[in-house]
Design a protein that fits this description.
- A two-stranded parallel ribbon has the order 1-2.
- It has one domain.
- The protein is mainly alpha-helical.
- The termini are far apart.
- It is built from seven helices and two strands; from the N terminus they run αβαααααβα.
């Protein structure tokens, strides 16, 4: 009898602790779509991507054309001339690969540009969420955009609009 009373009290205490936790939900995609600076930054990134891709493609096409010319004339070239042309083709292909790495690599221009343009906006969102969490005593804030396991969430716990207002954007 004593164990059952203790078990009931323990279950009651656990349920009270679970009810005491406060959760909130945000949707960073929604928030970012409502920030004009993000839209502008995203457009700049897309333009830079197109520009960089075009530059890489020009060099890659030059290398491809050099290879096709080489194949067409290979029968008439001496061994030394073949070797020289092959080295030129390889050098052009390496230049294209290096340019691609310079623009799109893990430490490339595009990554630096993203850090410069988008990271400050994301930091502002994080700071606003942190302030709201402390203000309303949320124990956990989940991002709907990155939490693929969320099937349904009650809209009343979504604080995305409140985050936007905190950042100074009206909805």
């Amino acid at each position: 009898m004593r164990k059952s009373i203790l078990s009931v009290m323990l279950l009651f205490a656990i349920s009270m602790m679970a009810n005491a936790q406060k959760f909130a939900l945000i949707d960073t995609e929604y928030i970012l779509k409502n920030i004009p600076a993000y839209q502008s930054a995203n457009e700049q990134l897309q333009e830079a991507t197109k520009k960089y891709q075009a530059e890489v493609e020009v060099i890659a096409k030059e290398a491809q054309k050099m290879f096709q010319d080489y194949q067409a004339r290979a029968a008439t070239l001496s061994t030394d001339q073949k070797s020289k042309k092959e080295d030129e083709i390889v050098a052009k292909e390496k230049a294209a690969a290096e340019l691609k790495r310079t623009y799109f690599g893990p430490e490339g221009e595009l990554v630096k540009m993203r850090e410069e343009l988008i990271a400050p906006i994301q930091d502002d969102i994080y700071d606003a969420v942190k302030e709201l969490s402390q203000l309303h005593a949320y124990d956990l804030v989940i991002d709907r955009a990155s939490a693929t396991g969320i099937i349904f969430a009650n809209p009343r716990i979504d604080i995305s609009d409140e985050v936007l207002r905190k950042l100074g954007y009206s909805i």
